[in-house]
Amino acid sequence: QVQLVESGGGLVQPGGSLTLSCAASGSIFSIYNMGWYRQAPGKERDLVATIERAGTTYYVDSVKGRFTISRDNARNTVYLQMNSLKPEDTAVYYCNADIENSDYVSNDYWGQGTQVTVSS
After folding, report:
1. In terms of Cα–Cα distance, which of 36, 59, 20 is closest to 110?
2. How far apart are CA 16 and CA 31, in angstroms?
3. Which residues share a beta bridge with 114?
4. pLDDT over 90 for what percent of the chain?
5. Counting beta carbons within 10 angstroms of the beta carbon of residue 18, is it exposed (0 to 12), middle (13 to 18) or buried (19 or more)?
6. Strand 114-118 relative to strand 10-12: parallel, antiparallel, unpaired?
7. How far apart are CA 67 and CA 81, in angstroms?
8. Which residues does residue 59 pair with via DSSP β-bridges, in sequence order?
9. Strands 91-101 and 28-39: what pairing?
10. For residue 84, what pLDDT is reported?
11. Cβ neighbours of residue 105 under 8 Å, at least 6 residues apart?
């Protein structure tokens, strides 16, 4: 069984920084695309950033220059470094990964979510 476990959320003042982590565990053969999404109250879940296994990244315009996504393939972990945080970044952040398990079956997995609140 494969699962994603996130950590690193919390309360931060505007202009502050946070780093989110998401570790995949279980019977994993390979992890392909990994990414972060967020869902603000009353809104849909939206893409924030993605990273391919080889390291190619993509960011939505609203976080470009402020957020950095990275991954450690040896640790099956993806990170989201968030700088210059704004109140509009407040949301539950979800980790997502395309994982091929030890039976060579690929599925899309989600973490449980971690709350990020930007407020003074």
Report:
1. 36
2. 31
3. 93
4. 98
5. buried
6. parallel
7. 5
8. 49
9. antiparallel
10. 98
11. none
Which two tokens mark 2? Answer: 């494969």
Per-residue pLDDT at 33: 97
Locate 64 and state its tokens.
Answer: 């470009």
pLDDT computed for residue 70 by the predictor: 98
Looking at this protein, which amino acid is placed at residue 96?
Answer: N
In the chain, % of residues over pLDDT 70: 100
User: What does the DSSP assignment read for 42-110?
Assistant: TS-EEEEEEE-TT--EEE-GGGTTTEEEEEETTTTEEEEEE-S--GGG-EEEEEEEEEEETTS-EEEEE
Counting every residue written for the chain, the total comes to 120
Half-sphere exposure of 39 (CA within 13 A, CB side): 10
| Residue 111, SS3 per DSSP | coil
Question: Distances in Å between the alpha carbon of 116 and those of 56, 107, 113, 120?
Answer: 25, 27, 10, 13
Q: What is the pLDDT, as a whole number, of residue 19?
A: 98
